[in-house]
Write a structure and sequence with these properties.
about 35% strand, five-stranded mixed sheet, alpha/beta, Transcription Regulator spoIIAA
């Protein structure tokens, strides 16, 4: 799992690549700290290269959402694959996030 975080002033952009599964979630939890520190901004999660997400990965995204809600920011997920969209629909996460395809 690879993550790249860029601070664009008013927003943070995080690209996610690979499998966000249980083994990767421990490291990802540490790597996303800059997003949590800047949760008062708009956080864009670019999921173009996200291949898979497990319940552990969903928990991480939920943690980001909760922190942004607490600090007045917002989370936008962009470019999610159909397989991941289905996971979001089945788990009810689809309605928790703003999801943009472009």
């Amino acid at each position: 799992m690879e993550i790249n975080i860029t601070n664009n002033g008013d927003s943070m952009v995080c690209t996610l690549a690979g499998r966000l599964d249980t083994p990767a979630s421990l490291q990802v939890s540490k790597d996303i700290q800059p997003l949590l520190d800047n949760a008062d901004k708009e956080i864009v999660l670019d999921c173009t290269d996200l291949e898979y997400i497990s319940s552990s990965g969903l928990r991480i995204l939920l943690g980001i959402r909760k922190e942004t809600a607490r600090k007045g920011g917002k989370v936008i997920l962009k470019h999610i694959r159909e397989e991941i969209r289905q996971v979001f629909l089945m788990t009810g996460f689809y309605n928790l996030f703003e999801i943009q395809d472009s």
